[in-house]
Amino acid sequence: MGNLSAPGFIDLPPRTAKPRSRGLTHVLDKGLTLPDASAHVEAAAPYIDIWKLGWGTAYLDPAVCDKVNLLATHAILACVGGTLLEIAWAQGKAAECLAWAADAGFPAVEVSNGVVGMPPLEKRRLIAAAAERFTVLAEVGDKDPHAPVSPARWSHEMLSDLEAGATWVIAEGRESGTVGLYGPDGAVREPLFEALVDAVGVASLIFEAPRKDQQAWFIRTLGSNVSLGNVVPGDILGLEALRLGLRADTAMLNLADLDSAASAP
Amino acid sequence: MGNLSAPGFIDLPPRTAKPRSRGLTHVLDKGLTLPDASAHVEAAAPYIDIWKLGWGTAYLDPAVCDKVNLLATHAILACVGGTLLEIAWAQGKAAECLAWAADAGFPAVEVSNGVVGMPPLEKRRLIAAAAERFTVLAEVGDKDPHAPVSPARWSHEMLSDLEAGATWVIAEGRESGTVGLYGPDGAVREPLFEALVDAVGVASLIFEAPRKDQQAWFIRTLGSNVSLGNVVPGDILGLEALRLGLRADTAMLNLADLDSAASAP
Amino acid sequence: MGNLSAPGFIDLPPRTAKPRSRGLTHVLDKGLTLPDASAHVEAAAPYIDIWKLGWGTAYLDPAVCDKVNLLATHAILACVGGTLLEIAWAQGKAAECLAWAADAGFPAVEVSNGVVGMPPLEKRRLIAAAAERFTVLAEVGDKDPHAPVSPARWSHEMLSDLEAGATWVIAEGRESGTVGLYGPDGAVREPLFEALVDAVGVASLIFEAPRKDQQAWFIRTLGSNVSLGNVVPGDILGLEALRLGLRADTAMLNLADLDSAASAP
Predict the structure, then answer these.
(1) Does A240 touch chain C (CB under 8 A)?
(2) Which chains form contacts with chain C, at 3 or more CB pairs under 8 Å?
(3) What is the pLDDT of residues A114-148, one digit of tens each?
């Protein structure tokens, strides 16, 4: 379906269609206005699977219900950012936060523990409680660039989060792409990446990848149907072009038969 | 008022409401279209105090009067960028520039001297002339990254500008956040910052802070109600989330009682 | 015409008007929604000459015909990104790609060879074929940051492309501004720049210049009416302010007579 509207004269790599379990595009909304969100969604709904209202912006946006409805209309999962739930939990208000998210119509929530140092057992209980009403995305990784990054601990926590009821696990990269999954220069920490793929499997993993070079790296490494997160709304169509090998950085996906290339008309 | 629409289950730090004298959010508009400006303003008017039409964009925008009217409707001070007035002054047309700004309906102007090397006495005369009709924001600091930065000179000029009739003084950081108030890497020049706070006082100061790490630094250092300038329109809701401790970088504002955190539902 | 709507109290440098052969602003659309594109075009049509639908985004956008029509209404040349034609060519579908572009209403196409290593003779044949129906922009330069950059080879290829039927030649900088025309830090490769200006002439050259510091460098070096490409839609009005000396980085264009500056009112 993703390619249905394309004119068809170019052979493109196979691409999953909605509702996708792999090859998801997960968008980070840092506070988009409703008309702007609406324009993005109407232009590119087949290419958008999950739409996260980042941090606590959902809590401050008087039009939050309208945005959630808009996303539902286009078969996009609206998701509350994990920081809000972490802060609510730290204030003893996790149940109130989940009730509010349900009232506002959110079908999905993110459960993270990168801010308040929630113990693993608490995180699992919160995932289980949330999974009764929501699709749960569990995030693993600290927000602090100086925190140690242990492939074994991340793998263990992800498996545990999935067992507790999460549908996908998200590898933390923040909106900067310089933390957790990445070194300070934005390069993928390859031993961490390999450990996660081995232990957890690609099907359950969403990699936060806000930068084009990072998106291209994952697509070159794992193919068109890798699930990528924290995508900027303005990059949605550009990312789909990357996935389909229609940009220089991933054009090799469409050039396998270069030797047999015909000449110009 | 800023928090009025929030659902209320999280304890947030106190926040000033419009019309604010402290805790202002001052937005830099680099040439937004009218529909886009309108969407931002309708979505987030309680969080926007001043809206600067950067540099000379106001001079080139045929829809400038409509934008100024839109901002007035939402109780946001529309402000002419300082560079335009500097160039007009250098061509002997400062009076014409102020007359045009009044005709276009601007309630505020910025008076700066970072471009043309206007002598301090001239700057004060221009502030006094502008203050007869406008709210005046006086900017201090050179646009040139190689210009020397003297805490004593900045403090003296700011006090002098306030005495001449400016309502607020702005510490220069440019839209890049790598000049004046900041080193080339974007880190705050702390001795300069401390000198300005001591000499001028937080209530009269607006710090240009275009980058999230800079905004978070000021909020952690001076609290939610620090006045911040050159905020990108797309960051307005995100900045309010930072001010209210609803993002990882400032979450400590809401975690004082972490020891008493309740467990998950 | 570009300056017609300006209030007129400031002396500005002379500026060409549409349809321009020099001083073009060439915009890179990375996948803008139709309402957003429409707002930009309605706000700033006199300042926009060419609008490139980047890479393969045009191929994926179901509203591509509406966007092309919108641009035509505002006398802006809609242009297909070169990567799409390169991939089509590599799959032996160059003729189909040009037929599709004509059907969609595009008046212009870009012919490049930075992705698939198309031999120079093939590029010239493709330019000649495209020029029968389209205004052709030929791009020179590799997308690979590690590719060697030869002033002699670039000059030769540009002259050859013009001879084959291209109306303008584009010096590659990518959307990052760190490749081809630029070193990895974004600084202009001056020997390359000088060789191109000498061999090809400014009138036929469009310099990809996505960053403000790069745009300012070209304007300071070649004046207001240099043709600049890969401009981000949000920077259109800001670039016009740069061209007209209404921003700090180029204010010297309006300050020639600083000695005779009058005093404040």
Answers:
(1) yes
(2) A, B
(3) 898 899 899 999 999 999 999 999 999 988 888 88
